[in-house]
Amino acid sequence: MFYQLQHFEGVHTHGLTPCRCELLRESALLVNADNDTLKRLMDREPAMAALMSIQGFRSLKQDLETIINKSEAVKKARREANDEKLSANQQKQLTEAEKEYKSLRKKVEEKLIKFATRVPVFMYPTDYRERCLKDVITYLEPGLFRKVTGLTIKDFELVVSLGVFNSALMNDAVYKFKRYEDASLG
Predict the structure, then answer these.
(1) 5 near 145, Cβ under 8 Å?
(2) How many other β-carbons are positioned within 10 Å of the β-carbon of residue 181?
(3) Which of 58, 64, 59 minimizes the C-alpha distance to 44?
(4) CA 17 from centroid of its chain's CA atoms
(5) pLDDT digits (tens, 9 = 90+) for 119-133
(6) CA 18 to CA 164: how far, in whole Å?
(7) CA angle, 165 as apex, 174 and 57 as ends, to 5°?
């Protein structure tokens, strides 16, 4: 069974199976976008370079710096202001800074989720559905994985090792996909 890449890329926008709907419902759990995870990611230049090579992640470094710096500045200001009352202007500035970094964090998280949901769905265009995802990616279809995700296996494993993606949930999504496929085939 061979699908053209154009067909596969459309899978994430339409033609949802129950398994795919389940994955999308749980998609926020597929990624970790807390400050500690983002700092680990920023500290690993190869991981940053790999993600920034993907369309939509070009400004990732700047976005992560803004998220981390503003969130830490807001926390520090709130901690220091704990003893004294903030003026209306100071409160407004803190609230605006908080909205900005939370909005930016949400955008980064959505981009990571969009990427992460491609990985379990990677099983659609492959002939090796009965195998586990790691085997298909690593040994059987590494070229297709690179075309679909934009990352090499080494880069993907590095990003996963930093805790950006929840590999246990991805494996669970693959298991659910295989179970659904098996049931639909007979």
Answers:
(1) no
(2) 15
(3) 64
(4) 21
(5) 766 666 555 555 566
(6) 26
(7) 115
Mean pLDDT within 153-177: 82
What are the structure tokens assigned to 112, written together? 């990571």
Can you give the pTM of this predicted structure?
0.74
Over its C-alpha atoms, the chain yields an Rg (Å, rounded) of 20
- What is the SS3 assignment for 145? helix
Task: Compute, in degrees rounded to 10, the torsion defined by CA atoms 148, 151, 154, 160.
Answer: -90
Token digits for 125? 């265009």
Task: Report yes or no: 165 and 112 within 8 Å, Cβ to Cβ.
Answer: yes
Residue 168 pLDDT > 60: yes
Query: What DSSP line would sit under 8-37, residue for residue?
Result: HHGGGTS---HHHHHHHHTGGGGB--SHHH
The CA distance from 9 to 115, in Å, is 11
**pLDDT tens digits for 36-79?**
999 999 999 999 999 999 888 999 999 999 999 999 999 998 88
Q: 3-state DSSP helix/strand/coil percent for the chain, to nearest 5?
A: 75, 0, 25
Highest mean pLDDT of the ranges 1-5, 38-42, 163-167, 180-184? 38-42
